[in-house]
Amino acid sequence: MKEKIIAKASELFLKFGFKSITMDDIATEMCISKKTIYKYFCNKELLIEESTNFIQKEIHQIIETITIQNHNAIEENFEIRKMFKEMFKSAENSPVYQLKKHYPEIYEKVILNEINQCDSIFRKNIQEGIKQGLYRNTINIDHYTKFYYNLIFSIKGSTSSEKEGQQLELEILEYHTRAMATEKGIIELEKHLLNSNK
């Protein structure tokens, strides 16, 4: 039952935001009593913490399945973006923005964990892109990795509209890729930008 509550709460938090959804909403959605939820979670903050762990785990499992496919480095980044867009498609207000505003301590833990996870993903992507001739081999990988996740996380935490956040993320991805790309990489980037704007 605990896992079911976390899964349902995660789904609702992503759709409507961490502040908007109450324990009553979760109980009603699951056709259980609020007392059942409190049996496993003494307060909403604890449920939010467990839910963010669940969401992060789910996201990184999906990212892992994307990275083991035979995408080139630029295509891989666009596939990951598509996955996030799909995951947050029904959200009007950014769940990350709500988390930062109303539950800052949990937000800090989430961001710290994300930075650690993303550091290796972004670093590996740049290394592969260099091998594939899509990114310049003169890049300082440490700096470019840091630039990218700082830009991404500053947008996620400061944009209340999910739609606006996703548009800004696309522009950051373009900015990041153009900064690293070879001529071959620019051609690949333009192809994916064309597809993402359809």
UniProtKB/TrEMBL annotation:
Keyword terms, alphabetized: DNA-binding
DNA-binding region(s) in UniProt: 22-41
GO function terms (MF aspect): DNA binding
Matches recorded under PROSITE patterns: HTH_TETR_2
Domain HTH tetR-type: 1-59
Claim: Transcription is one of the keywords in the record: no
InterPro entries in the cross-refs: Homeodomain-like_sf (IPR009057), HTH-type_Tx_Regulator (IPR050624), HTH_TetR (IPR001647)
Protein name according to UniProt: TetR family transcriptional regulator
Lineage start: Bacteria, Pseudomonadati, Bacteroidota, Flavobacteriia, Flavobacteriales
